[in-house]
Amino acid sequence: MVGRWVAITGVSVILSSLTTQHLVCSRTSTECLHSISHSLRSRFSQHQGRSPSFLLAAPDNFNPDLQPQPSAPAPTETPVEKPQIPSVPPPAPSPKPTVSVPVPKPTPTTNTPPRLTQEADRIAAQRAWKYFERNWNTKTGLVNAVDNLPWTTLWDQGSAILGIHAARQLGLLPAGVFQKRIDTLLQTLETLPLPATGLPNKAYSTHTAQMRQLDNTPDPQGKSGWSALDMARFLVGLHVLREHYPEYSDRIHRITTRWKLANLVKNGWLNGGISSANGKILQVQEGRLGYEQYAAHSLKLWNLEADKALSQPPVKTVSVDGIVLEVDQRNFKNSGATNYLTNDPYLLWGLELGWSDAVKPQVNKLLQLQAQRFQRTGNLTAVNEDSLDRPPYFLYYSVYADDQPWHVTDTRGRAYPQLRFLSTKAAFAWFALVPNDPYAKKLRNFVQNLADQNRGYLSGRYEQRQLGVNRSIDINTNAIVLESLLYQARGQRPLVL
């Protein structure tokens, strides 16, 4: 194998040379590295008093072989095996689960702030908000991507903005405190260091707002590149701010005019930037079916048209357990990036933007398929991308990926079927989007108490009972819990409206 040896904290590994196969990116860089960083930080800081270092094996990918077992503190609240929401009775069993994606009927806009009427929802909101209280940085206004780790991507900060907005709307955050947090954030963004590309770097320190690499090492020149998918989610957050709080509109306009946003789209496709072997930024197509369309619709809020990503994605149909779905033809074998068909982009699409009529059949089948698997196996199923509390620290659990159903894989295409998990954020989002569906109710009941009373919601629970709870805690889980609750409280109005 062509490569080079690199020594990292006493471990030597071979890095393969960059090939064109690796240059087509999917949504792989935004959560996986910060989960690993947290586990490494916990281990090495005890011995060395500094942040650890580790490697990227390919653009937007990491080398999970280098990661030690995490040593995160145990939650102070131990989740029970089958938690129940106090105010929501268990749904009646359904021998033939069916899903009906509703056509949202938004409630008229009024001056009355949205409020949660169920005690279980109020408890959930308070638990999720604990994460923000614990991980907001007073100097920068940025929120840690993972509990107690001062590192972030733009995807994570999009989640942070939407979570803070949800907390303000739900009455968890007083007006004065909200204003201080947003003012601090906008001050940081006004002077945010930018690379020569003119777009925000892939990662930043939440303590200093200085550019970092995806392995949390300094990146003073911003050679990590940019992610169109991450930027799209971040821009959703800024759009919600300027629409719901017009007093910030001018500042947001000045901030975004510093950035070369037009470079997020090229020839009608999402356009990302990755670091190449010679240190230059190489522009590449980014995104796979689901993530690609969520991001493209998000960019339309800023008059950026990725029309081919919306109208010409290369798709095919496959049958999974007798249900026909659309999947991306670009998979790991032919493009170097896996075609994950998982819940996350479709749930964010529904909560934040509102589903288009064209996507509803796909969404309908996604939930039906997971409910059907539960009936067949007895395993509650809510697939997703999520951080983990053990190696490889981040996985995509998909209903279909790389020609395999119910595939669990890391960003390098390696399978981990023993680590299938139920996702907390997926369970909350499904219930918010289809609250009358029995299976969505069952999911929400199950995750209601998967939380640490001082740190926020945990990522979920493993299917193998002996593995128990996935104790990883991050911004995206807790932000999506708050987004889901706000969506409910607003009568199923997408957050951008």
Automatic annotation (TrEMBL):
> Where would you find the membrane-spanning parts of this chain?
none
| Low complexity biased stretches | 97-114
Which Pfam families did the record assign?
A: DUF3131
Q: Which InterPro entries match?
A: DUF3131
Q: Which domain of life is it from?
A: Bacteria
Residue ranges, annotated region (Disordered): 51-118
Query: Biased composition, Pro residues: where in the chain?
Result: 86-96
Q: Where is the DUF3131 domain?
A: 124-491
Gene3D superfamilies listed in its UniProt record: 1.50.10.140
| The protein's name in its UniProt record | DUF3131 domain-containing protein
Organism whose genome encodes this protein: Gloeocapsopsis crepidinum LEGE 06123
